Amino acid sequence: MEDAQRGRSMSEHIVITGSGLASALGHNPEEVFQYLLAGKTGIQLMEELASQGLGATKCAPAAPLAPHSMEIMPRLADLMEKHLALLFHASSQAMTARFPGTSGLRPEEIGFYAAMGMVDYGIADLLPAMLKSRDRNGNLDYSQFYAQGYREIYPLWPLAMLNNVAFCQVAISLEIRGVNAVFSPHADASVQAIAEGVASLQSRTAKLVLAGGVGETVSPLSLNRARLSGLLPPLGDSPQDCRPFAAQRNGTVLGEGAAMVVMELESSAVANGSIPLARITGVGFSCRTKSEAGAPLGNALARAMSQALDAAGIQPAAVDVLVAHGEGTIHGDEYEIAAVQQLFCDCGLSLPVYSSKGSLGHLLAASPALDLVLATQMIKNQTIPPCPSSIPLDSRVPFVVPAERPLAVPIRTVLINACSPEGPCASMVVEAIR
Asked: Residue ranges per domain, the chain?
């Protein structure tokens, strides 16, 4: 894979002035963070998936949401299910959290960037068409399907399978008409979305940006995709929790949720009375080079972290907390351990490291956006939640993982990692308002 590394420095401070969150543990940042401090987990056994040939499976389904107020055709909304509802909830919450809202801004001055994974069809969406397309023996007859069976499919069904249709519906509901883009499908996509939002603010093509990501709905299709990517243990293994950096880790657990932040120039926030939560001061991207084809991701992740720190103008020793990708797979965590050792050297021995996936599951495209919202809470509370599922730690772990109880430490700088099973890696630096 071609080297696609880059880092972005912040010519003027970009601050976060609002955040929104939907997850397996709750639907606002403060509530979820308090649950994490208490060592709670949203991961549960989903026995109903066994009837679909997947065996008993653990995942972190999003807690039920109140009905949304979007003006959208009910049938279309049903097709997009949680994907739409989660994105709308986190987005509207983030926009509402910013004081003074969007007053004084034209819709064209607000940018919108989101990372979004796959939207999966339901069998019920296609079953009527299949039943009407059978021959005398009950087999699928394509001539019957193309002659009449296809008419049983809801006309807007193909559109509902495009993730950016949910994105557009949220933009319409929130009256956002500025620069925009959707990034897919893995964890690095959220960092791309946030980086593009930063660039839009610095270039003055937007005065306010809403950015983040939404994870996939847990389904037989999403679980099988994750298994093919090596994120989940082989089918037939007994269901396990996600155990980042643990000695007995054996794969991740998929989670549902969304996380969004509102960003603007710090000078703008000061002028309009917004209260900054934190600064985004650097981002970095990398992937395996041609010479590294088939090699572990450790070198690429180390480069991404290094670029983010360089863009922020700080040394590794200045990092107070690393919010790791920490997916809980055997090799994925091994590569991240190697990357941390490579970059942090001796100062890594006392570096506190946290992973949200042991409690909230892997939100895929939304994963680093979720970690960004949690990082603002760590800065606010000067505390790192525990990772109870990480006990006992892998003996090769060279850093501090608070496993049994929260860790209260001075937190001014947080480094966040994200990796794709296909090779791209991304990192971003978040700092307290000084």
From this structure: 6-121+161-431, 123-157
